[in-house]
Amino acid sequence: MRSSxxxxxxxxxxxxxxxxxxxxxxxxxxxxxxxxARAIPVVFCSSxxxxxxxxxxxxxxxxDPFIVENGGAVYVPRNYFPFGIRRSVQRGDFEVVELGTPxxxxxxxxxxxxxxxxxxxxxxxxMTEEExxxxxxLTLAEAQRAKEREYDEAFKIVxxxxxxxxxxxxxxxxxxxxxxxxxxxxxxxxDHDKGRAVRILNDLFRRAHGSIVTVGLxxxxxxxxxxxxxxxPVVVKKADGDHDRSVxxxxxxxxxxxxxxxxxxxxxxxEILAERVGA
Length: 279
Ligand SMILES: [Mg+2]
What we know:
The chain is an alpha/beta fold. It is 36% helix and 23% strand.
């Protein structure tokens, strides 16, 4: 089926566009190239920080807007759209729409939450670069960039059974904050998620192009709000070879990519390009 709408692709990074273990995107690159050759925007929408996302953008030559820290901020290259962006601030070469709760407030909230809990909380702010590197399989430089957080605290709950984890997560919500879960960590957030950031960009793309058809690709729970905000949600397989049931069970129209991470990305994007733009 061909569509008259401009195709826009939103994608998670870790475990989706990037391999969960090696963080390589090489398997997805041919389809990324096919999309960019047809001027189809590919918007990175990740829990990664600005510093981490900039490295990946440079590596693959990406020039489109992107979303950092689970929807904490939307970055649009200056003059990307032929109009100004409401409620944006200038930061270097970008117009930035900030949606997230400032990081120091999240860290303080975590500190208060853990005072009377029967388990150990470990946030990125508690961990050295060496510890983050060892825990997440990153180099020291990558771990340093991962710790440059502004709107989202990555954390884990150490040595707790599922019932205690449930109590911890309920306490977060009682404190007026939110949590989500990526491939490796829980994330503490204020009142933002990937979906809110995607809807802001959808409005901008619609204003620029008229009708749009949006695709979203993800692998875990933190992608659900993004996948709910697009026309064609796609879930790739996790490293264990399964699709995340907590995500696909909540998306009636979901497409299941036939491969793990970037291999699934490649196959799904190829299929959608063939259907939508005859590529
Ligand atoms: Mg992921």
